[in-house]
Amino acid sequence: MKKIVYMDAAASWLKNQSVIETEGDFLTNSYANAGRGVCERASNVDKMIDNVRHQVADFIGAGSSNIVFTSGATDGLNRVVGIIQNTLGLENKKLIVAVSDLDHHSARMPWEYLAGQGKCELVVCPLDENLNIDIDNIPICDIFVITAMSNVLGVPQNVEKIIRIARKKNPNVITIVDAAQFVVYENIDVSQMDCDFLCFSGHKIGADTGVGVMFIKNPDNFNPDKFGGGMVNRIIDSENWILNKSPEKFEAGTLPLTQIVGLGQAIRQLHDNHAYLHLIGYMYDELSKIPGIEILTQRDACILSFVVKGMHVLDFGTMIGVRDVCVRVGNMCASWIHKKLGQDGSIRISVGPWNTMADAEYVIKTIRNMVK
Q1: Are 157 and 149 in contact (CB under 8 A)?
Q2: What is 32-269's CATH number?
């Protein structure tokens, strides 16, 4: 098998062999549905899911009843909108929703859609000269969507301070944190952040696709957005029913069981030591020497984004791809920040613990030859 240099960690983290083996063992020897049976095998699956839920809770500084499993960050961020709609009834209120140009499409588009229907008012939080959320100009709002780290710029935002300022301006503000990129590089403590919702995807930290986490600070204060098996305690009549407590209240239907089991193993394997990020600094320095390359990120960012003058990013992606290098090209599902940068798209390099200096040197040599 030929060597592929995979530098697209920010799009999806490569899977540790132990995650693959854990999921395979579950499917082969332990599989059963969760919350649907009383036999020993089904009970064991219930315990496994509960154990992972506690593990995720510890991972982000939450309680297990605050952890809801989703299919990913996109699913979670869209579901938050549905949960708030079903609780507050946006049809009768013109709530102000703050977003920013750092936002991923899934964080902002659902609110853009509702604003277009006249169900909320959108305000764009300004960025400062370094393209971070401008903490001196946090708007007064009812709902605040905060991207904890842009997947184009790779710089962590001071979420705790941003939320603290937002709450001073409106103590009842509902804060929603998109931590999809942030979770890989920074420790999360939701009790310190004081956020109301936080979402991330499992595949960004080495778990499988199809699983994510939605944290809800006060689940008893919110109505569910989905209905079905597993979340109902008792149906009294056609107009009255009793729902289970959180998290079951928000987990209608069968969960992505195999992926949840893999998520637990991925968290155990996730390294706090980000020594591999020195490769970003090295490539930043080397790319800076190549005429025609415009770097869009800071040297100490967690990712490296750039453009090549006179070359479309899709052409670049095709050319480097046939040279056995995987990078991300396009608008990264983050159109607003690209507009802010005056670019239609960009090229993104992101590394993981599997990458070596030899990989970085090969990528730089390849880019140098392509641009030349």
Answers
A1: yes
A2: 3.40.640.10
Report the distance separating Cα 295 and Cα 345, nearest Å. 12
Give Cβ neighbours of residue 98 (< 8 Å, ≥ 6 apart).
122, 123, 124, 125, 138, 139, 141, 143, 144, 145, 166
pLDDT digits (tens, 9 = 90+) for 154-175: 999 999 999 999 999 999 999 9
First and final CA of the chain: distance in angstroms? Answer: 29
Residues in the chain: 372
Backbone conformation region of residue 253, classed left if phi is above 0, alpha if psi is from -120 to 50, else beta:
left
pLDDT at 239 over 90: no
Beta strands in 209-291 (DSSP E): 212-216, 232-237, 240-243
- Would you tell me which CATH number, out of the four given (3.90.1150.10, 1.10.287.3510, 3.40.50.720, 3.30.420.280), belongs to the domain 5-15+273-371? 3.90.1150.10
CA 359 to CA 365: how far, in whole Å? Answer: 10
Name the residue with tokens 């990020």.
277
* Distance in angstroms (rounded) separating the CA atoms of residues 46 and 40: 10
Token readout for 365 is 């040599």
Domains of the chain, residue spans: 5-15+273-371, 32-269
Burial of residue 218 (number of CB atoms within 10 Å: 0-12, 13-18, 19+): exposed
Higher pLDDT, 42 or 183: 183
Closest among 224, 276, 269, 232 to 55, alpha carbons compared: 269
Q: Which residue has the tokens 């050319």?
A: 319
- The band of 92, judged by pLDDT with boundaries at 50, 70 and 90, is low
Q: At what angle do helices 17-25 and 257-269 cross, to 10 degrees?
A: 150
